[in-house]
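Hi there, hope your week has been kind to you so far. It would help a lot if you went through both lines with me. No rush at all, and the record is pasted right below:

***
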Amino acid sequence: MPGDNLSNVDIVVYALYLCGGVDKKIHTERVAQRCYELAPDRFSWKLYPYPDKEPARVSLYDAMKEEKGALVEGRSGMEAKGKELDGWTITLAGVKWLKEKKKHIKACLRGPKKEAIRTERQKF
């Protein structure tokens, strides 16, 4: 499957980049949606084909850790009083990391093209 040799952190940082996370704060749900588009087998519900926010949220928190390179900063959720605090951005370390890894991640997520079955080709 596409992206098999990538970690969820690789995918979530790349998704955040695609959403504009270098320039502005991006909501966790928007990042989760993009992760689902890139790797639906990892970022979806188990029983239904819907994006799952939890794997993206956990991966964003992992990407924030020093041992992963402190690639992103932000948080998920709301303040106790109801104030919206959700949002993520890519750090300077994350930008440098992306410059090195972006081409590889993009290539891995594209994956091999699936050949159409002969009967399907004949229909067209």
Q: What stands out?
A: The longest helix spans residues 92-110. The mean pLDDT is 87. The CA atoms of residues 75 and 86 lie 5 Å apart.
